[in-house]
Every structure is written in structure tokens, then in C-alpha cells.
């Protein structure tokens, strides 16, 4: 065993328990432990929130989405669909028309986001887990068109699936007419559709009505045009790679985005918050670890005679310096290991039992999501190593420079 480590270990475990130096060392251990535990827990919560948002996006958003580079619509063609379907990893292609419209139901009305989709949308099964009432269907047995309505729209319009005689009336500005009189019956195109299902994901999707593509195309006079193509990838294929492969085959008139790119702003905000929280907690750990500096400085003063004796026995300044570096490492790493163990235990308990609630009735999950990533554990460990070396080096160097003479 390394001699410096053995001496440092003896100093640590054989101190007088009533010593003020020992008290400071234990305060430093506790501070580093609490800071380390907090960092592990907080970083895991941010990971959990990022993972939760990805699950939410997956429920509604496609794996890959193709949009026009300019404007909000483009002409669809069989050759375009064939090019996309020929890309390795593409499972299905859903044609989409999406825009704002006015919805009426009974005596209520509100602005909604209409999303017209073809029959392949139902087979993707995206909304299966989000459906809270009714069924996921676009057409009835007799060809009657049905809409899948968000919970927010159901509440705003007081929609009842049991009321089969009252349809939802959709209105969209009639682009074929030049009239400026909004009270004119020709100012808006109209379509009637029955509510067939209610879904809930989160509030950002609460203004959606999903309807058959043919109904929306006629309502918005798209005439063979689409606002987007949504692509589901086959199992085992990377969304990013499939997105890049499609982009290579299409012209520059299109923008191809994977799911993370579609929600880049929110994911970037979470990562920036995680970075700044990491920096803040690192500074807190540094403040706690400054006690190690004071502890080692006072220990160096207390052990002057021991240092002189070691020099007399042939010790080098490097050996003496390493003794105090190991002493600081023992104090810091003891607290860090306890903090890491406590933080991991708290995260595992939260994952299993959900002790801490989100406290929001509209949330998809009852408890705060946490996700342990070993990269964060190693990052926390690296921070502890850097801080420990930083606060231990100066007192260790001063101890190595100590010069003591014995009186004869």
C-alpha cells in the first residue's frame, strides 16, 4: 500500500474525536455528501423530464415530418410518395393537411387546430394510449366521417359522444371567394363531422381535432395539396438516419425533420437549464469543500513535528505533499460516495414508488419522472476530483515546504 496513503488514512481515523480539526473535516464530508446527492437527484430529474417530453411527443408527433420550405402547402404526387417509401426504414407515410379553423357545436364555438389525416394514421396506433373515451376511427360503417377530439376542445364546446344528433360544424375562410363580408354565407366553407373519440395528452395538444383527410381537403380547398407528410420508421431504425436519407432524395423545396428537431426549442431549453443547474451545484460543492482547505491547513500546522520527523527519516517533499492530498481525498471521497449512494437510492425509490408528486391534475404522470444516466454519475465524480485537488493542493504544498528544527 502507498506510504502516503497509509499515513493519511492513519491521520484521518486516529484523530481525537473532540478535535476542532476533526469537526471541520466532518462538516466538509457532510457538505460534499449533500451537494453530491443533490446533483445526482437534480440531474436525474432533468433527464426524466426530457424523457417524459419525448414520450409525449411520440404519442402525437411522427418520427419524421416533411414540410414545404416556403409557404404552408405543396402538391402531392405518386412519385413523391414512392421516393419516400423506397427509403430503407420507412414504415408508413401519412398525408396531412393542418390549419386553424372555427368549430361550432350547439351554441358554443371556438378556434381549433384541424389536422386532416388519411387512413394510415389509425394503423400507426399513436393515439391508442391517449384515447380516454370513444374509439379511434375516422369513418363509420356507413362511411360517416368521424373526428377524434382533444379533451380541451371537448370541454370548450361541451361535446357529448352520446349526442348522436348534434355534429361538429367546421368553418374555414373560403379562399375561392373575394367577398370581404364575413357575415355572408359564402365567406366560409363548411363541413359537418361527428365526434367519435376523445384524447388527452397535455395542454399543448388541447386545441386539436383530427379528421379524415378528404373532409379537411374539401373544407380548406387544398385540391391535391398537402401541408405535411408524416413518416413512421420501422422498428430498429434511427429517426435521425432515416430523416437524413429522405432529405438526400428530396429536392431543396422540402424540409425534413425528425421528432427531436420538431421540438428542438423545448429540448434545448431543458438541456440549458440542466447545464446551469450543474454549474450552480458544482459551486455549492466547492463552497462545502473549502472546509477541506481549512481542515488541511490546520492539520499541517498541528503535524509540523511529524513532518519534520518524516524528513529526518528521509522523506521527500513529494511524499509529504501526497500525504495531505490523500487526506483531502479521503475526506471528499467519503462524502462523495455517501452522496452518490444516497442520490441513487432516492432516484430508484422515486422511480419505483413515486414519493414526490407532480401536483398537477392535468399531468400524464402522477410523480416526478427521474432517469439515472451513468454519464451524469461519472460527471459528478469528475467534479468532485477536480474540486478536491483544487482545495487540497495549496495546504499540501505548504505542508511539504515546512521547515522545523529540533532543539538539542
UniProtKB/TrEMBL annotation:
InterPro entries the UniProt entry points to: ABC3_permease_C, Lipoprotein-release_system, MacB_PCD
GO biological process: lipoprotein localization to outer membrane
Pfam families the UniProt entry points to: FtsX (PF02687), MacB_PCD (PF12704)
Residues spanning the membrane: 20-46, 275-301, 331-353, 373-394
Residue runs in coiled coils: none
UniProt KW keywords: Cell membrane, Membrane, Transmembrane, Transmembrane helix
Domain of life (superkingdom): Bacteria
Gene Ontology CC annotations of this record: plasma membrane protein complex
MacB-like periplasmic core domain: residues covered: 27-135
Domain ABC3 transporter permease C-terminal: 280-402
Location, primary (coarse class): membrane
Membrane topology (UniProt): Multi-pass membrane protein
Cellular localisation: Cell membrane
Family recorded in the similarity comment: Belongs to the ABC-4 integral membrane protein family. LolC/E subfamily.
Protein name, entry field: ABC transporter permease
Organism expressing this protein natively: Dyadobacter luteus
Taxonomic path: Bacteria, Pseudomonadati, Bacteroidota, Cytophagia, Cytophagales
Amino acid at each position: 500500500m502507498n506510504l502516503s496513503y497509509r499515513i493519511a488514512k492513519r491521520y484521518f481515523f486516529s484523530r481525537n474525536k473532540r478535535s476542532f480539526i476533526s469537526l471541520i473535516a466532518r462538516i466538509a464530508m457532510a457538505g460534499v455528501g449533500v451537494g453530491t446527492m443533490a446533483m445526482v437527484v437534480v440531474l436525474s430529474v432533468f433527464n426524466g423530464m426530457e424523457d417524459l417530453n419525448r414520450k409525449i411527443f411520440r404519442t402525437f408527433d411522427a418520427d419524421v415530418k416533411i414540410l414545404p420550405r416556403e409557404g404552408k402547402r405543396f402538391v402531392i404526387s405518386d412519385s413523391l410518395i414512392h421516393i419516400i417509401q423506397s427509403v430503407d426504414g420507412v414504415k408508413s407515410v401519412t398525408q396531412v393537411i393542418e390549419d386553424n379553423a372555427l368549430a361550432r357545436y350547439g351554441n358554443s364555438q371556438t378556434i381549433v387546430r384541424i389536422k386532416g389525416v388519411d387512413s394510415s394514421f389509425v394503423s400507426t396506433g399513436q393515439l391508442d394510449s391517449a384515447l380516454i373515451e370513444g374509439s379511434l376511427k375516422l369513418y363509420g360503417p356507413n362511411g360517416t366521417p368521424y373526428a377524434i377530439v382533444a379533451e380541451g376542445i371537448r370541454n370548450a364546446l361541451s361535446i357529448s359522444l352520446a349526442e348522436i344528433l348534434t355534429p361538429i360544424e367546421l368553418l374555414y375562410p373560403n379562399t375561392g371567394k373575394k367577398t370581404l363580408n364575413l357575415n355572408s354565407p359564402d365567406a366560409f366553407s363548411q363541413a359537418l363531422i361527428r365526434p367519435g373519440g376523445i384524447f388527452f395528452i397535455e395542454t399543448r395538444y388541447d386545441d386539436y381535432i383530427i379528421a379524415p383527410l378528404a373532409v379537411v381537403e374539401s373544407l380548406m380547398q387544398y385540391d391535391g395539396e398537402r401541408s405535411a407528410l408524416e413518416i413512421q420508421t420501422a422498428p430498429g431504425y434511427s429517426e435521425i438516419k432515416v430523416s437524413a436519407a429522405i432529405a438526400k432524395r428530396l429536392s431543396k423545396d422540402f424540409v425534413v425533420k425528425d421528432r427531436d428537431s420538431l421540438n428542438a426549442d423545448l429540448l434545448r431549453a431543458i438541456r440549458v437549464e440542466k447545464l446551469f443547474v450543474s454549474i450552480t451545484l458544482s459551486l455549492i460543492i466547492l463552497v462545502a469543500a473549502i472546509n477541506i482547505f481549512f481542515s488541511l491547513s490546520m492539520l499541517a500546522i498541528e503535524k509540523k513535528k511529524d513532518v519534520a520527523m518524516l524528513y529526518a527519516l528521509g522523506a521527500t517533499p513529494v511524499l509529504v505533499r501526497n500525504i495531505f492530498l490523500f487526506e483531502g481525498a479521503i475526506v471528499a471521497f467519503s462524502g462523495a460516495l455517501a452522496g452518490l449512494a444516497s442520490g441513487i437510492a432516492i432516484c430508484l425509490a422515486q422511480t419505483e414508488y413515486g414519493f414526490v408528486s407532480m401536483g398537477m391534475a392535468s399531468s400524464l404522470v402522477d410523480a416526478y419522472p427521474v432517469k439515472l444516466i451513468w454519464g451524469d454519475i461519472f460527471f459528478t465524480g469528475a467534479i468532485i476530483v477536480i474540486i478536491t485537488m483544487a482545495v487540497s493542493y495549496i495546504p499540501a504544498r505548504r505542508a511539504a515546504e515546512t521547515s522545523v528544527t529540533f532543539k538539542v
